[in-house]
Predict the 3D structure of the following.
Amino acid sequence: MIEFKKIAIYGYYKNSNTDLIIELVNLLRERGASIVIESGLHQNLKNSNINLDNLSTFSTYEDIDSSYSLFITLGGDGTILRATTFIRDKNIPILGINTGRLGFLATINNNELENALEKITKGEYSLQERCLLKLEIEDNETYNNDFLYALNEITISRQNTASMMSLDVYLDDEHLNKYWADGLIVSTPTGSTGYALSCNGPVISPRAKNLLLLPIAPHNLNIRPLIISDDVNIKVKASSREFGFLVSMDSRSITLNNDTVLSIRKASFTLSTILLNENSFIKTLRNKMLWGKDARNK
């Protein structure tokens, strides 16, 4: 059962969000919570009508520890992806309040806030454990000290060129294929409804113990997406006609030299997202992605 003790709030400030943030802060205060707001959001709120008394701030992941009972995001799915850089392996449940567009991960609409908090108080929710991907870069101390994890996907793609890349892929040291393509997506089940979906990849249930390999615009007629077990170690050696290529972890990107060897595997920790009992993955597919929408289905 989640208790409203110490709660972090993170999100991007917009004038249209002011009333929502005021409501959220007041509702949490009514429940006796100690509220800690991300410093950038806190700075923007100084010009609003929110009472900031007794509200602490956090700036980096080092300010977040296991004493937090809940991490609330205000925004869309991208806000939740960025929130993982603060939560990391702290096992703090995350509640996404959707102020964006689709809201596949951020399932609580902004007009449902009080009802959602009440249901959490009553225990009418479940925790969905979502796996992350970990990236390791061979012989690269500079980046290997960074947070090289992704909740949605790790994408290897070309940079500043219209030419294809070559991507040599190994699964548990067994050679799978050399892809000639614009890039390669390694996706979690969570990410299967993100970038991978835009590249015609399959939708994977978040409870499935699988990963997805999806080449981007491969120059082969006999190449298809491949679903593999999530305990497989994926090794990729990539090169392009330019001096390097891009590797993206959700929305964060780095540039690496050609022929750099990458290792991608499931992380040793998960991210917990809150799902109210009235919601489900299937309902989200049907309602937000129009799954099975057909004029013949009444």
User: Anything to note?
Assistant: DSSP finds seven helices and 18 strands in the chain. The radius of gyration is 21 Å. Residues 133-267 form a domain with the Tumour Suppressor Smad4 fold (CATH 2.60.200.30).
